[in-house]
Each structure stands twice: as structure tokens, then as C-alpha cells.
Amino acid sequence: MSDHVQLEEILIGSIAGMLDGLGHVAVGASSPVPGAAALLTRARSNGATRVSVLGSENHNFFTDGAKELFDCAGQGRIDAFFLGGAQIDGKANINLVSIGDPDRPKARFPGSFGSAYMYYVVPRVILFRLEHTPRTLVDAVDYISAPGVSEPGVYRPGGPHALITDRCLFSFDKSRARFTLASVHPGHTVEEIAEQTGFDYDLPEGGVPETAAPDAETLALIRGPVAQQLAEIYPSFASRVFGIDKAA
Amino acid sequence: MTEVLGSADALAARIPDGAKVALPPDYSFCANALVRALIRRGAKDLHLVGVPAVGYQADVLIGAGCVATVETAAVTLGEFGLAPRFTAAIKAGTIRMLDATCPAIHGGLQAAERGAPFSVMRGLIGSDILARRPDWKVIDNPFADGTDPIVAIPALIPDVTMFHAPKADRLGNVFIGVRRECMMMAHAAKAAFITVEEIVDGDLAHAHETASGTIPGLYVSAIAEVKEGAWPQGIPGGYGPDLAHIGRYVEMARSEEGFAQYLQETVLGAEAAE
């Protein structure tokens, strides 16, 4: 590992910036970057932010089985959560199921997991997708695992807050059901985002800033205690990105 | 009385073709020795319920031709990616898929364990999951001041719950610790067939250290002691998963021929070991 700031570190720092000050952040299965961001937020909060990582034995409070995460979220005890999607569209609808006719799909993915619940009840859902192409960020998803916004009258205290990809960060306006390009990661351009995004979005007045890289203090936290904690949960990720082995 | 049987194969003989079978997720207590015994028995037309998601167990059963329907929030091999035999079967249209979301599975089982006709849950409205589940209904919250649509999930009553727990006693009490989805699954199902690492002396349901994490024998149809009965998956608090084996499974299960060879090597003719 060199002094060069890696994409993953920019994403971790950027996501953590959206979590600071929250009481309880939960992370679903197979989400190393959001997991690291949540652990960074906790490290910066001196323990004020609770973190629950599914699949972790050390960073998980739950003692009431697989249902507890959802019951906890339904009560409003979880402030932020992460979702992805094989496809995500301009209204923040997400598809975790299939491409084409769901009965004879061209591609089939694992399934919707808890998205059709968590997306409704967790106030700050951050969408995370590491492949930013017209194939993944589409005008309209083939299957709605969970909609970005709901009709008036439908119970919906939660929903999308932002979408972060390997190229940029979008913010989401629930009242207009539209994304705005909030920042472009270092090495990427506004023109490239336009080419690689399959949905319409807004541009902010006054130009698009570059996504800030983590400062030295944050970087030290990410590469130090956060990387060590992450190795218990996501050993292959911690080894690849931070050169840390679980046994170390 | 809970029966104490001699092997996973003896348990598998009690699980009929066409049964609706509840299975725990990969991070819980997976009864893979019993899965292999079901394949050896030639089980057919099973309706698998993943509580709330399922992985290797379902993929192997699907590949072996034991499954007609899968009802779950997800089928995944976690860090190993897509479940190959599930994916192939869905693309070929050879199994019926009932997509759900995690708390809908839990809600259906909770209604079943209460003996209630349904549970209600937030979320789902506006999703294609709901649009493709005519068995779920949107009703008006009768306690709301104004209009408040909410989804009713009918009781989900498995014929069989099966999993692999750390220990049981001779009275049929089964210790599951914090893996309480197994408790819910046992409460909700008509029958529970459970393999355990060890059968111990004493009464787990009346010892203070174990009572709160123990399923009373009341809900347990039969148990069998099967050492390393979760292999190649792990058992939380016990041994870890055999990652090399699962990696090799994913490679072999990419083709029907490779999967057939996997069954030959790992499942068929392995009665003596389990």
C-alpha cells in the first residue's frame, strides 16, 4: 500500500461523511465498503454511533435471530442502511431480482433480501453500486424490488438519500423523485458521467465539485483500526485493499 | 415424545415428497448432512422456504432434482456469488419461484407460530414482489384515522423445519442459543427434524444457562446426532465453513455434468459417514 489514495478509501470517507452524528448504522451482508464507512463513523464518534454488521460476530448486537434487524428498523431504531441493485433507475427504484421477463429471465440475481422493507422504514438509505454504466444505471428497472418513492398515503418514513458509484456521488430529492450529480470522484469527469448514466439527472447550479479525498487523520483511521476490524468480517477485501490478513 | 433416531438418513425417511420445508440462512444452523440424506432418498417436489434467505442447501437440492418451488427473499452463496444450480433452474423455468422480502417470510412464520391467520407488515407497496404475490393482500389499517394501506401476509406453515443445532438432550430439547430464527421455524412448522452435534445428559430446558436458548421438545419431532452435520458450512460458535470445499462446489456446479460428479463424490453412497 502506497501513499496513493485508493478509490475504496475515497468511497469509505465519502459515505462516512453522510453518517456522522447518526445513532445506529446497520450494514447488510457482503458490503465491505459501506461496512468500513460505518466502522469509520463509529471510530470518529468515540463510540456514540452504534454499528450492526450482518454476518459479523464482533460488530453485531442482535440476539433475537434473523428477524431482529427488521423489527429494530421498523421501530425506527436504525438511522441508516445500504442497498444496491443489479439495476437502479432515475426514480431510485432498485432491481435485485432479474433482467427481462422474471419468469424466464435473461439474468437472475439472488433476490430482494430485506430491501422491500428497509427502503421504506430506514430514514437514510444510501445506494451503493460499484459498476456505473448505462447497463446498471437505467431509465427504468426491469423489476422493482423496492420503489424509490411511494404514493401519498403510503407509510414511508424512509427512502433513498444518495447514490454512490465508482465514478460519482448523486444526491436524491424525494419530493421530485430525481437525482442530482453532487460530486465527481478524482480522475472522472462530468462528461463521462453523462455518457455512462442511463437515466436523466440534474446538475447543481455553479458546477460539480470533485469528491473530497479523506484527510490524513481519516486515512490513518481507515488504514488502521477500521481495516483491522473489517478483516474479521471481510477478510478477502481487507487483504486486497489494505494488505491485512485476518490472523495478523 | 421426541424420537431419537440413529442417522440423518433415518430423519430424511420421515420427510415426505412434496413437503413444504423451512431452511435457515447460511449464517445460521444448516443441516447439510440431512440435505444429503434427502438427496439419497430421492426426495421430490419439495417446496423450500428460505428463512429468510438460503444458499448452499437449496442449490444442492435444486441441482439434485428434489425441488419444485422456492419461496424466499434471496438465494445466494455470499462471497462465492450466485448459486449456480438455482440460477440455471430459474433460467430454464424448471422451478417455481415465489420471491419475498425478509420480513414477509418472518411475518408469515410469526402468524403461524401464534396460530393467527396473518401478519401485517409495512413496506412492499409499489414493488413487483407484491405485484407477483396474489396470495398477499393490501388491506386498510383499521386503527388509522385516515387511509393507511398495509400488507397482510398469510400464515406460512411449513410441513417440516430442518436444521443442525449444537446440542440436544435425550428429552428432545434442542439448544439454539441466539439463532432464534430456528426457534420460530420450529414453532411455526407441523414437524421439526433436527440434527445435532451431540446429544447430552440432563435437561437443557430447565438448566438456567441454556433454557432461554432452548427449543422445548414439545416442538421437536425427531433428532439425530450427526457430527459435523453442517459441513461444508460452519456452525456459529463451533467450527467454520470449509471454504475450499464450497469454492470447489461453485466451480463444479457451473455445469450439469460437474454437478453430477459432485453428487457422486460428496453425497451418494455416503450413508455410513452420516
Q: Biggest interface, which chains? A: A-B, 48 and 54 residues
Question: How many beta-strand runs of chain A?
Answer: 12
What's the Cα radius of gyration of chain A? 18 Å
Strand content of chain A: 15-25%
* Largest beta-sheet details of chain B: 10 strands, mixed
- Portion of residues in helices of chain B? 25-40%
Overall radius of gyration of chain B: 19 Å
Distance between the termini of chain B: 24 Å
Strand numbers in spatial order across the main sheet of chain A: 3-8-10-11-12
Q: Which strand-content bin applies to the residues of chain B?
A: 15-25%
Oligomer: heterodimer
- The N- and C-terminal alpha carbons of chain A lie at a distance of 16 Å
Order of helices and strands of chain B: EHEHEEHEEHEHEHEEEEHEHEEHH
* Coarse shape of chain A: globular
Number of helices of chain A: 7
Structural class of chain A, by secondary structure, is alpha/beta
The overall pLDDT average of chain B reads 96
Helix content of chain A: 25-40%
Overview of the structural elements:
The complex is a heterodimer of chains A (248) and B (274). Chain A is of the alpha/beta class and 248 residues long. Chain A contains seven helices and twelve strands. A five-stranded mixed β-sheet of chain A has the order 3-8-10-11-12, covered by helices on one side. In chain A, strands 5-4-9 form a three-stranded mixed β-sheet, with no helix packed on it. In chain A, β6 (98-99) and β7 form a beta hairpin. In chain A, α1 crosses α2 (32-44), α2 packs across α6 and α6 (216-233) packs antiparallel against α7 (235-242). Chain A is globular, with a radius of gyration of 18 Å. In chain A, 48% of the residues are buried. With 274 residues, chain B is of the alpha/beta class. Helices cover 30% and strands 25% of the residues of chain B. Chain B has ten helices and 15 strands. Chain B has helices at residues 8-12, 32-41, 56-63, 84-92, 102-114, 128-131, 181-188, 208-211, 243-252, 256-266, and strands spanning 3-5, 20-23, 46-50, 53-54, 67-72, 74-75, 96-99, 118-121, 137-140, 149-154, 160-169, 174-175, 191-200, 214-215, 222-225. In chain B, β2, α2 and β3 form a beta-alpha-beta unit. The interface between A and B is large, with 48 and 54 residues.
